[in-house]
Amino acid sequence: MAGSPVDFESSCGGGEALLQMNVKDEEREKLEAARKASSHDIHRQQSAVQPNFKQVRKHGEDVVFASERRGVGGYVPGNFDPFDPRFLNKDVALKVSKERFKWQDSLSQVKLKLTNTGKGLRVFKVRCSDASLFRCDPAYGTLDAGKHCFLCITVTRPPTDCSKIKVESLPVEPGDRREPKEMMANRDPSKLQYTHIEVHPSTAMGADLSL
Protein backbone atom coordinates (compact mmCIF):
# COMPACT_ATOMS: atom_id res chain seq x y z
CA MET A 1 0.00 0.00 0.00
CA ALA A 2 1.39 3.32 -0.96
CA GLY A 3 2.26 5.57 1.94
CA SER A 4 1.23 9.16 2.33
CA PRO A 5 3.40 11.64 0.53
CA VAL A 6 5.98 13.36 2.72
CA ASP A 7 6.38 17.13 2.58
CA PHE A 8 10.18 17.30 2.70
CA GLU A 9 10.31 21.06 3.13
CA SER A 10 7.82 21.02 6.02
CA SER A 11 9.71 18.20 7.66
CA CYS A 12 12.99 20.07 7.44
CA GLY A 13 11.36 23.27 8.62
CA GLY A 14 10.02 21.54 11.72
CA GLY A 15 13.44 20.16 12.53
CA GLU A 16 15.00 23.57 12.17
CA ALA A 17 12.40 25.10 14.47
CA LEU A 18 13.07 22.39 17.05
CA LEU A 19 16.81 23.05 16.80
CA GLN A 20 16.23 26.78 17.33
CA MET A 21 14.12 26.04 20.41
CA ASN A 22 16.89 23.86 21.83
CA VAL A 23 19.43 26.63 21.20
CA LYS A 24 17.19 29.17 22.94
CA ASP A 25 16.76 26.83 25.92
CA GLU A 26 20.53 26.48 26.19
CA GLU A 27 20.96 30.25 26.00
CA ARG A 28 18.38 30.74 28.73
CA GLU A 29 20.13 28.19 30.93
CA LYS A 30 23.47 29.90 30.38
CA LEU A 31 21.98 33.32 31.20
CA GLU A 32 20.33 31.96 34.34
CA ALA A 33 23.57 30.31 35.44
CA ALA A 34 25.48 33.56 34.83
CA ARG A 35 22.88 35.53 36.81
CA LYS A 36 23.11 33.14 39.76
CA ALA A 37 26.91 33.24 39.68
CA SER A 38 26.87 37.04 39.62
CA SER A 39 24.40 37.15 42.50
CA HIS A 40 26.57 34.73 44.46
CA ASP A 41 29.68 36.87 43.85
CA ILE A 42 27.91 40.01 45.03
CA HIS A 43 26.66 38.26 48.17
CA ARG A 44 30.15 36.89 48.84
CA GLN A 45 31.69 40.36 48.45
CA GLN A 46 29.11 41.88 50.79
CA SER A 47 29.75 39.14 53.34
CA ALA A 48 33.46 39.86 53.16
CA VAL A 49 32.96 43.61 53.66
CA GLN A 50 30.33 43.46 56.40
CA PRO A 51 32.55 42.04 59.18
CA ASN A 52 35.11 44.75 58.44
CA PHE A 53 32.36 47.38 58.64
CA LYS A 54 31.22 46.14 62.06
CA GLN A 55 34.77 45.99 63.30
CA VAL A 56 35.46 49.51 62.07
CA ARG A 57 32.34 50.93 63.71
CA LYS A 58 33.12 49.22 67.00
CA HIS A 59 36.68 50.48 66.78
CA GLY A 60 35.48 53.96 65.88
CA GLU A 61 33.33 54.22 69.01
CA ASP A 62 36.34 53.51 71.22
CA VAL A 63 39.16 55.33 69.48
CA VAL A 64 39.25 58.91 68.29
CA PHE A 65 41.20 58.50 65.10
CA ALA A 66 40.30 59.08 61.48
CA SER A 67 41.46 58.60 57.94
CA GLU A 68 39.95 58.82 54.50
CA ARG A 69 40.57 55.12 53.87
CA ARG A 70 38.17 52.44 55.03
CA GLY A 71 39.40 50.40 57.96
CA VAL A 72 42.34 52.65 58.86
CA GLY A 73 41.87 54.28 62.22
CA GLY A 74 38.15 53.59 62.47
CA TYR A 75 36.80 55.84 59.75
CA VAL A 76 34.06 54.67 57.41
CA PRO A 77 33.20 57.36 54.80
CA GLY A 78 29.83 58.90 55.52
CA ASN A 79 29.67 57.53 59.09
CA PHE A 80 32.19 59.65 60.96
CA ASP A 81 31.46 62.97 62.63
CA PRO A 82 34.46 64.43 64.49
CA PHE A 83 32.03 66.35 66.74
CA ASP A 84 30.03 63.21 67.63
CA PRO A 85 30.15 62.81 71.46
CA ARG A 86 30.43 59.02 71.05
CA PHE A 87 34.00 59.54 69.89
CA LEU A 88 35.61 59.80 73.30
CA ASN A 89 38.99 61.23 74.27
CA LYS A 90 40.17 57.91 75.70
CA ASP A 91 43.03 57.03 73.38
CA VAL A 92 44.26 60.40 72.15
CA ALA A 93 47.66 61.88 72.97
CA LEU A 94 46.40 65.39 73.77
CA LYS A 95 44.33 65.46 76.96
CA VAL A 96 42.25 68.40 78.13
CA SER A 97 41.64 69.26 81.79
CA LYS A 98 37.86 69.56 81.31
CA GLU A 99 36.09 67.71 78.50
CA ARG A 100 32.57 68.95 79.31
CA PHE A 101 31.58 72.12 81.10
CA LYS A 102 28.71 74.56 81.51
CA TRP A 103 29.28 78.08 80.33
CA GLN A 104 28.69 80.61 83.10
CA ASP A 105 27.22 83.92 82.06
CA SER A 106 29.49 85.72 84.53
CA LEU A 107 32.57 84.51 82.65
CA SER A 108 33.94 86.04 79.48
CA GLN A 109 36.59 83.37 78.99
CA VAL A 110 37.87 80.13 80.44
CA LYS A 111 41.31 78.48 80.38
CA LEU A 112 41.72 74.74 79.91
CA LYS A 113 44.95 72.81 80.34
CA LEU A 114 46.03 70.87 77.24
CA THR A 115 48.66 68.17 77.90
CA ASN A 116 50.60 65.96 75.50
CA THR A 117 50.55 62.47 77.05
CA GLY A 118 52.12 60.94 73.93
CA LYS A 119 55.73 60.03 73.21
CA GLY A 120 56.72 62.76 70.77
CA LEU A 121 56.16 66.29 69.56
CA ARG A 122 52.64 66.95 68.25
CA VAL A 123 51.17 69.82 66.26
CA PHE A 124 47.57 70.87 66.84
CA LYS A 125 44.80 73.02 65.46
CA VAL A 126 41.67 74.15 67.36
CA ARG A 127 38.31 74.23 65.59
CA CYS A 128 34.75 74.99 66.72
CA SER A 129 31.45 73.53 65.58
CA ASP A 130 30.21 77.13 65.44
CA ALA A 131 32.98 79.67 64.87
CA SER A 132 30.60 82.54 65.67
CA LEU A 133 30.39 81.41 69.32
CA PHE A 134 34.02 81.17 70.40
CA ARG A 135 37.53 82.42 69.86
CA CYS A 136 40.27 79.99 70.84
CA ASP A 137 43.84 81.02 71.59
CA PRO A 138 46.12 79.54 70.44
CA ALA A 139 44.43 78.34 67.29
CA TYR A 140 47.63 76.50 66.26
CA GLY A 141 50.55 75.21 68.25
CA THR A 142 52.96 72.40 69.10
CA LEU A 143 53.37 70.42 72.30
CA ASP A 144 56.33 68.26 73.22
CA ALA A 145 55.84 64.98 75.08
CA GLY A 146 54.92 65.56 78.72
CA LYS A 147 54.43 69.30 78.20
CA HIS A 148 51.26 71.35 78.48
CA CYS A 149 49.79 74.68 77.43
CA PHE A 150 46.62 76.58 78.28
CA LEU A 151 43.80 76.87 75.79
CA CYS A 152 41.94 80.15 76.28
CA ILE A 153 38.31 80.05 75.13
CA THR A 154 36.56 83.40 74.75
CA VAL A 155 32.82 83.55 74.24
CA THR A 156 31.49 85.95 71.60
CA ARG A 157 27.85 85.17 72.38
CA PRO A 158 26.42 82.80 75.01
CA PRO A 159 25.67 79.31 73.68
CA THR A 160 22.01 78.29 73.68
CA ASP A 161 22.68 74.58 73.20
CA CYS A 162 25.61 72.19 73.41
CA SER A 163 28.48 73.38 71.22
CA LYS A 164 31.75 71.59 70.62
CA ILE A 165 35.39 72.49 70.27
CA LYS A 166 37.72 70.06 68.55
CA VAL A 167 41.50 69.92 68.88
CA GLU A 168 43.03 68.18 65.86
CA SER A 169 46.56 66.87 66.35
CA LEU A 170 49.16 64.72 64.66
CA PRO A 171 52.79 63.73 65.33
CA VAL A 172 55.56 65.93 63.97
CA GLU A 173 58.16 64.13 61.89
CA PRO A 174 61.78 64.53 63.08
CA GLY A 175 63.45 67.49 61.41
CA ASP A 176 60.18 69.10 60.30
CA ARG A 177 60.65 72.81 61.00
CA ARG A 178 57.55 74.15 59.29
CA GLU A 179 55.11 76.44 61.07
CA PRO A 180 52.17 74.66 62.78
CA LYS A 181 49.66 76.21 60.39
CA GLU A 182 51.59 74.92 57.37
CA MET A 183 51.93 71.44 58.86
CA MET A 184 48.19 71.22 59.52
CA ALA A 185 47.38 72.53 56.05
CA ASN A 186 49.32 69.63 54.51
CA ARG A 187 48.35 67.03 57.12
CA ASP A 188 47.97 63.30 56.56
CA PRO A 189 44.34 62.47 57.53
CA SER A 190 45.31 58.92 58.52
CA LYS A 191 47.45 60.29 61.39
CA LEU A 192 44.94 62.77 62.82
CA GLN A 193 43.57 62.49 66.35
CA TYR A 194 40.70 64.51 67.78
CA THR A 195 40.31 65.81 71.33
CA HIS A 196 36.77 67.03 72.06
CA ILE A 197 35.46 69.70 74.40
CA GLU A 198 31.72 70.16 74.98
CA VAL A 199 30.43 73.60 76.01
CA HIS A 200 26.91 73.53 77.44
CA PRO A 201 24.62 76.55 77.97
CA SER A 202 24.23 78.04 81.45
CA THR A 203 20.78 76.44 81.76
CA ALA A 204 22.15 72.90 81.35
CA MET A 205 21.75 70.50 84.27
CA GLY A 206 24.49 68.26 85.62
CA ALA A 207 27.01 68.45 88.43
CA ASP A 208 29.79 67.17 86.16
CA LEU A 209 29.42 70.28 83.98
CA SER A 210 30.67 72.73 86.59
CA LEU A 211 34.07 74.34 86.04
Automatic annotation (TrEMBL):
Q: Name one Pfam family in it.
A: Motile_Sperm
| Region of interest (Disordered), residue spans | 23-48
Say yes or no: keyword Cytoplasm present.
yes
Every copy of the MSP domain together lies at: 80-211
What are the UniProt keywords, alphabetically? Cytoplasm, Cytoskeleton
Print the organism lineage: Eukaryota, Metazoa, Ecdysozoa, Nematoda, Chromadorea
InterPro entries, A to Z = Ig-like_fold, MSP_dom, PapD-like_sf
Summarizing the function annotation, the protein's role is:
Central component in molecular interactions underlying sperm crawling. Forms an extensive filament system that extends from sperm villipoda, along the leading edge of the pseudopod.
What name does UniProt use for this protein?
Major sperm protein
Cite the record's Basic and acidic residues compositional bias ranges: 23-44
Q: Which residues form a coiled coil?
A: none
Q: Mind telling me which SUPFAM superfamilies this protein's record contains?
A: PapD-like (SSF49354)
